[in-house]
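Summary for the steering committee. One of the milestones for this cycle was to obtain a three-dimensional model of the protein with P53 bound, which we needed before selecting residues for the alanine scan. The sequence and ligand used are listed below.
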Amino acid sequence: MKKTFPENFLWGGATAANQYEGGYSEGGRGLATSDFITNGSADRPRKITIKLKDGTKTMVNRRPAGDPKIDTIPEGASGYIDENVYYPSHKAVDFYNHYKEDIALYGEMGFKCFRLSLSWSRIFPKGGIEGEQPNEEGLKFYEDVFKECKKYNIEPLVTLYHFETPAYLANHFNGWGGRETIACFLRMCKEVFTRYKDLVKHWITINEINVLNGYAFMGTREATAQVRYQAKHHMFVASALANKLCHEIIPDAKIGCMVALSSIYPKDCKPENVFGALDYRRGALIYSDIMMRGYYPSYADHFFEEMGVTIKKEPGDDKIIRAYPSDFLSFSYYRSSVYHTEIVQNTDTGGQMGDVNPFVEKTEWGWAIDPIGLRYTLSELYDRYQKPLFIVENGMGTIDKADKDGYVEDDYRIQYFRDHIAEIKKAVTLDGVDLMGYTPWGCIDLVSAGTGEMKKRYGFIYVDMDDEGNGTLKRTKKKSFDWYKKVIATNGEDL
Ligand code: P53
């Protein structure tokens, strides 16, 4: 039995380009679907600005990830940028021009690992279509970032695809809806594996694959179950082939898949609720089942039949998925949800919020705070797969009140992490879970994916910027900065 966290445990933090990097028109970067999304709030959906075939400009709702009731973008329409609209991704919190300063702060906290995503259209402005040359300035940017990490002995954990599709691929191939996108993705993967083989040994293929939908997240015009699951099939094939390429080019690298896996409980012991919760959970676990075990699970036929979905596979697809499974399963965990048969299920991805749980507190955004749920999830996943796990997102989005110097006394955040890390420790020591690391989400304040707000903050570092993009972008350590530094220094002993 382990007594504590392993020596080489990867403590760190997590970000994504579309919410953190900015520099959307700098350094030769091409446009991505995330560049057309406005900001919103908890009750005002974010919107996508689009131009119709006849030139008419309009907007459609970008529903939250996982919501299948999503607007369709008409044939021939495409995302466009309206000069009078504020788009949070364009500047985000400008990691593009602050990376040295930010990585120095991560170094000061003692990070062993820093999770970031690549903006695909920075590497290949059109997404890597046949004959396209990579954008050297884009490649150089990430190379500089990884070298900066190396200075502080920080291991980069690189997500290849996180909520943004090159606009060209969305417009020409219906994004991941089109089989052509697989080859483009693999050209990008080959380029970055080759270029960064000495700098990056930990990779993630596709972020939260289960909750992706629509134009914003997958580049598809439609969001019917048929289109969504066909696109996911393309992602399974692409992900498996990316695993293959990664192992060929960087033999000592590890490459994992990523699923949103916040836990789900049955409301009570009514058998229909208990089985229903298990069945609903399959909407999320089907993804890790396929990518970790290498085949569509036994319940898949019925799952797709119920939704009227027929997956079109090319000969050889199943063999590819079987031959190149993921090395590890990484996942996000924010909250637990409550299932019962009467609740209206507005998603099929196993991830909605469900009913109120009277036994736990909630954040200002209604997300249940449930540390034991994290130990539950770790055990559920390790019992199921017996392969390494990696918690690559966890945290608490709150309204932080900064003083005039930007300092935030975030004792609530410290409490959240203290309680969650204590449960993670039990999973490692008592349940025997093989856990590679822990990278809390938004280690520095960044744009919310759900709402596009800045005021939903997760960071150990405060960034001076508001929901409309005003602010100096000044970085200030919060109280939790020193606390997390101590946790890392003691390898999780002193909470
Ligand atoms: P925000 C929905 C539900 C759970 C996780 O979310 C989600 C989403 C998407 O909104 O996304 C992940 O920013 C995602 C990150 C995201 C983070 O959770 O809405 O991988 O990009 O920022 C937190 O509070």
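Key point for the committee: The mean pLDDT is 95.
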